[in-house]
Amino acid sequence: MDFRRMGLAGALLAAMSGPCWAGDMPGVTATSVKIGGIFPLSGPASAIGQVGQGVRAYVQSINDHGGINGRKIDYVMLDDGYNPTKSFEHARKLVESDEVAFLFSQLGTAGNSAVAKYLAAKRVPTIAVVTGASKFTNVRDYPLTTTGLVSYDTEGRIYAKYLMRALPAAKYAILFQNDDLGRDYVNAFKAVLGADFDKRVVTASYEVTEPTVDSQVLTLKSSGAQALFIAGTPKFAAQAIRRAAESGWKPTVLINFPSSTIAGTLSPAGLENSVGVIVGTSNKDPIDQKWLGDEGIRAYRAFFDKYLAGSDITNTSYLTGYQQGMVLEQILKQCGDDLSRDNIIKQAKSLKSLALPTALPGVRINTSPTNNMIWTQLQLQRWTGTGWEQFGEILDASSE
After folding, report:
1. Cβ distance 145 to 126 under 8 Å?
2. By CB distance 3.0 to 4.6 Å, which of 110, 260, 282, 321 could disulfide with 84?
3. What's the pLDDT at 87?
4. How many structural domains compose the chain?
């Protein structure tokens, strides 16, 4: 009897019957799962880039408690500076060098657009992308993607319908970032106003490379518009709010959710200049007195003190990252021991009535094979000078 052959056969049998992590589950070992994230930690969108720091901090808290299903998370976070060329370079590194299981929470419409075709070709899921660009909600075109923001189309429709109720005869101005982010919001207004859009709406765009939007704001002011919607990122939203106030223009101001941070937008604009600003949100405000006794906010503030000490809690990008971390935790729990890429995207599209403790009452997360949007609901809120005051009902794209 050839014991050497028997030994080799036994080894092969053991290899075949054991976990096939290297082939079937890239980035996965018996004790860890490697996940990638790309964020603008620097550059013109750095205020919202801190979502990444929130995700990484939450991952650290998971690991401190032993991980999930016996595995700790190795979260590899890279900074693209809001530059899509760098986004692509980082995606290749994460997939080909770091060999991550999947990408989670990549932030930025342009960056996600730059890497989408490459990741699809590599069959790498990209979960809870932090962009509301409507194209990513198309599950046929993006079968390996789920989104982590209310779509800009839904958000824009909510704002357009609000203005038509609040200021039915007024002219509206829109300042928008000249990319998929900004154009989605403009198209949402067009869908709601229809043939009246050209008669009632004046628009001005800006590039993210521009130093200021002062000239655009003054142009919009000269139109006589009574409402101003700013569809961009915090740096430019802050500039627009401040310039409108300094010029004596006092329209009803709305901003988009990505710019709804106090630290990144309202404080640089001037808290007094920001009084009356309206935005939609899905979240409780962690510094609002009315939530300080809330169990979910108390847990968040304790987490913040431990894992984000020294950071500015008024920058709610950290809260977004914290919530993203909760979503990641739920997906990995549902995956069990099957962390194949097929099961990861399957579980990401199988979230049922998930209520995060820091989300507003009534807001639920539901995904499915035909709905890849984690968030679909918003409630309007108005800045009072010292805090956000919610008003109205929980809204979605179908709300009137």
Report:
1. yes
2. 110
3. 98
4. 2
Residue closest to 161 by CA, chosen among 150, 147, 151, 172: 172
For 135-172, give the DSSP string.
Answer: GGG-TTT-TTEEESS--HHHHHHHHHHHHHHHSTT--E
pLDDT score recorded for residue 399: 81
Question: 248 and 315, same structural domain?
Answer: no
The two tokens of residue 319 are 């809260």
Hey, what are 274's tokens?
A: 């920001």
From CA 258, how far away is CA 143, in angstroms rounded?
24
The answer to whether 221 and 241 have CB atoms below 8 angstroms apart is no
Same domain flag for 117 and 234: no
- For residues 171 and 200, the answer to whether their CB atoms sit within 8 Å is yes
**Alpha carbons 125 and 94: distance in angstroms, whole number:** 12
Give the C-alpha separation, 174 to 232, whole Å. Answer: 10
The end-to-end CA distance of the chain, in Å, is 81
pTM beyond 0.85: the answer is: yes
Residues 211 and 105 in one domain: no
Residues in the chain, how many? 400
Residue in 365, 333, 397 with CA at minimum distance from that of residue 70: 333
Q: Mean pLDDT of successive 10-residue segments in the chain (400 residues)?
A: 43 39 78 98 94 98 97 98 98 98 97 98 98 96 97 97 97 97 97 97 97 98 98 97 98 97 96 98 94 97 98 96 98 97 98 97 96 96 95 86
| pLDDT value, residue 163 | 97
Which residues does residue 145 pair with via DSSP β-bridges, in sequence order?
126
| Structural domain containing residue 339 | 11-150+296-369
Q: Mark whether 313 and 207 lie in a shared domain.
A: no
Please report the pLDDT score of residue 398 as a whole number. Answer: 79
Residue type present at position 201: V
Q: How many CB atoms lie within 10 A of CB 399?
A: 15
8 Å CB contact between 221 and 253? no
Q: Say if residues 145 and 246 touch (Cβ distance below 8 Å).
A: no
